[in-house]
User: What shape does this take?
Amino acid sequence: MSWRNAYAILQRATEKAGMSAKGISTHSTRRSLVNRLRKNSVDKDVIRKITGHRDNKGLDPYIDVELDEVKSAIATL
Assistant: This one.
């Protein structure tokens, strides 16, 4: 499937669900997937396998670190 077809399907599904498609993209859904898996303690190697990234260098830009995670890490000191 081409990127354009995937994008069109995503846009139609978003609109069909009654949501605004503004800001929704294949990239944003991939980022959401990566972060949800990480928050559910899925190993990075497994996430890379799912997303097709060859290494952490390609995967790391998708990972968001939340403020509560930073606070929890600091609290361990």
Remarks:
- The two ends are 48 Å apart (CA to CA).
